[in-house]
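Collaboration report, partner site 2.

Our partner group contributed sequences for two proteins of shared interest, and the home lab folded both. The records are reproduced in the order in which they were received, starting with the first partner submission.
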Amino acid sequence: MTKRKPSRRRKPIKRKGGSKQQSQSPSAMLAQAQKMQADMAAAQSELENEMVTITAGGGAISITISGHQRIKAIELDPDIVDPEDVEMLQDMLIAGMNAAIEQSQTLSAERMENITGGMGGGGLQDMLGSLGMRER
């Protein structure tokens, strides 16, 4: 008669943490999505009234842009308006406008990230996907 080794039963693996989304019920996730949507709409509305002002050309040009990427004001130092060098003025305006747009986009992205909690690129779509509601 041979001795039999006692069988080893594996203990169930307990996972620590896990994502918040996995522990929420579908109704709680839907409520969270609705709140997030309302918060995002409010932030978008507020961004319309938030302004970013940048300068270019060593302060010779000042451009003010809204959080909705709408140019609200352009101020030029009269000393830079040289009919003989329109190209320099054009270059400074382009540089200033591009910098203003970048600042406005950064402002908008920061506001949205505050709402979504840094959910990444998918954001609301990722959350809805776990409910089986992902767009196809």
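Second partner submission, folded after the first:
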Amino acid sequence: MSREDGGVLLEVLMALALVVGAFSVITGGLQSAVDSVERMRNSVHGQNLAVSLLSQIQMGLVDAEDVEGVRFEAPFEEWAYDIETEEVEAETIGFYSGSARSVPEMLKVEVAIHKPDGQVIHRMGQFIFMEPSE
């Protein structure tokens, strides 16, 4: 083996090392992009489920009571939700201040949408007027 053959071998090994390094950087960038798309998809899906759940609470289809880890029905069974409620007087949040009319009772409802691993994907809150108790 001559000295020139050794130089060529060294050049080939250096070129191979550069290709492997470039490949690992590109693969890492692609994986990061795929992970970002997955997070964005979960975020939008969680937001849609939160809006739907709050709408169902307003329509009376879902009870406005504190619950944890309730699974959605098919086809969303891999998603779960928590509901937290708190009664609020309308005057404490600035409604009807100084008004002579009666102040309706309100309920602060907060829903948290998450995957079974417990990671919260989306959290949303809303004030809902309660039906007057008789």
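Feedback sent to the partner group on the second submission included the following. The mean pLDDT is 83. The chain is about 45% helix and 25% strand.
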